[in-house]
Amino acid sequence: xxxxxxxxxxxxxxxxxxxxxxxxxxxxxxxxxxxxxxxxxxxxxxxxxxxxxxxxxxxxxxxxxxxxxxxxxxxxxxxxxxxxxxxxxxxxxxxxxxxxxxxxxxxxxxxxxxxxxxxxxxxxxxxxxxxxxxxxxxxxxxxxxxxxxxxxxxxxxxxxxxxxxxxxxxxxxxxxxxxxxxxxxxxxxxxxxxxxxxxxxxxxxxxxxxxxxxxxxxxxxxxxxxxxxxxxxxxxxxxxxxxxxxxxxxxxxxxxxxxxxxxxxxxxxxxxxxxxxxxxxxxxxxxxxxxxxxxxxxxxxxxxxxxxxxxxxxxxxxxxxxxxxxxxxxxxxxxxxxxxxxxxxxxxxxxxxxxxxxxxxxxxxxxxxxxxxxxxxxxxxxxxxxxxxxxxxxxxxxxxxxxxxxxxxxxxxxxxxxxxxxxxxxxxxxxxxxxxxxxxxxxxxxxxxxxxxxxxxxxxxxxxxxxxxxxxxxxxxxxxxxxxxxxxxxxxxxxxxxxxxxxxxxxxxxxxxxxxxxxxxxxxxxxxxxxxxxxxxxxxxxxxxxxxxxxxxxxxxxxxxxxxxxxxxxxxxxxxxxxxxxxxxxxxxxxxxxxxxxxxxxxxxxxxxxxxxxxxxxxxxxxxxxxxxxxxxxxxxxxxxxxxxxx
Length: 647
Fold this sequence. Notes:
Layout: E1 2-8, H1 16-25, E2 34-40, E3 45-51, E4 65-66, E5 72-80, H2 83-92, H3 104-115, H4 117-123, E6 126-134, E7 139-144, E8 153-157, E9 160-164, H5 167-171, H6 182-191, E10 205-206, E11 211-216, E12 221-226, H7 230-239, H8 246-264, E13 271-274, H9 279-290, E14 297-303, H10 311-321, E15 324-330, H11 332-336, H12 342-346, H13 355-366, E16 371-373, H14 378-382, H15 386-398, H16 403-414, H17 418-428, H18 441-450, H19 457-464, H20 497-523, E17 528-530, H21 536-544, H22 547-550, H23 558-564, H24 584-589, H25 593-599, H26 602-608, H27 613-625, H28 631-645
Parallel strand pairs: 13-14, 13-16, 14-15, 16-17
Antiparallel strand pairs: 1-3, 1-9, 2-3, 4-5, 5-6, 6-7, 7-11, 8-9, 8-10, 11-12
């Protein structure tokens, strides 16, 4: 795992190496072990790299790296898990480069020489972002992995084209002058993250997952090309579904996951895994144990607050699997001490509050390992989110109810506070079927009340994943530009409502929120994170499974659970879905109140000029009174305000 940066310019400025060094130093945490620069003054190309040594720790892995023939020069971030197989393919086809080491970057360059950039990337199994200068064609090609595990930003600033793994690198260039994009801010207020291809700055973009971007500096033109398309994968899965039995599906899934986990355990440095005790992370750790002759290192954190502590579940799974387990119980003070670090870690506004425990468990793991595997992706692939069942059942009822009756039901639900609903739910839990036993039921009921005005399934889904449902009324001068959620042409053509939600989550929520959260938190402590469930072969197989294999008998993630239960007793896993969160709602009324009040001060909000003051102050007052829980909406504002203060 590394960090990359660079720029194109008609004429490289004086002090180009100093500029490159500043850009690279801005992302030093992504690669503390080594750095390198490369320039081609006649071509106007400047590349910088920071290296976190994971595979081939020798100088042979130094970047920027040139291909054997000298045509390609690359800066690369990520891992190509099948690069040794690619080397064999090259030899079998008569390509015999004189290998200098065993770094996957060198393999990638040899593939470019032999097959071209796109055909090589299509052969790769891995996570990556890269920038490669083609000295023959005189074009720059940017690339990003299929699911969006690794970030890549780019954009024209004046006469210069800037790119890098993090906005901090772009901002270190003297030509960077981008203004805050109010339209992107409006999207942020709905989604708690700025979705690709937008960034918080005007003219700066995120490269869409599964895409290559070719940049021609002579004509200042760019051409976007998609080499892998989740929408096509979803459609193909529906057109040619898996024809075997459920048990055969489980067998094949275990084989695919085993291969993915085994490949992602490739490292020349210590390696471990995050373990929450849930289905996804437990499956990854179980398969790691099955593919290793050594004890697996696992890491989890816990909280004292009831309803937020998964540590006992993780410990029980770790004991059963015999891992070398490290657990840290975090105090509220320790968690809150992370908050001042967040603007620097995320570089643009990001308001998924599980960013705090994610950083803490990354920090814990980094004390012992350099690489950690995670279980992200299981919910999107195997219908694990509660909202899938909620939306499916809710729409089936809502579509038959008049809007007036829906409004009265919604008013009835919100007449009781979330805490009151939680108390009632606690009393009723033993009487409810397992599928209806939810943590924080009150918040979910209030969320359900908010979506009762939906006219279509698509509108229902958008409201379910929204924080501020009308963010243009909160952001001054803001409106929402088109996104995957609002443009049906960008969505997967699948028949079932739940499958459409899963595809939308994989296209948006997964890369823009979940993977960004893990990448920034882990890279903030120089830890490489890997996500075996997002091996694209696993993704393609998951999309071939009929929905009733994933949601089977009211049980979500059924095939993944069956794989896990071959290694871990169901009793250790079966419990209401908790999520990886912290009690932000309580903290905002208590120890974080003064900090929040300063950021939400009406004079300050008015002076900064980005928000309408009245709706924010109303939400703040209602939250403090305990009448409503507006933690998600308020955290959006607070994270933007905290980020803005450091600009």
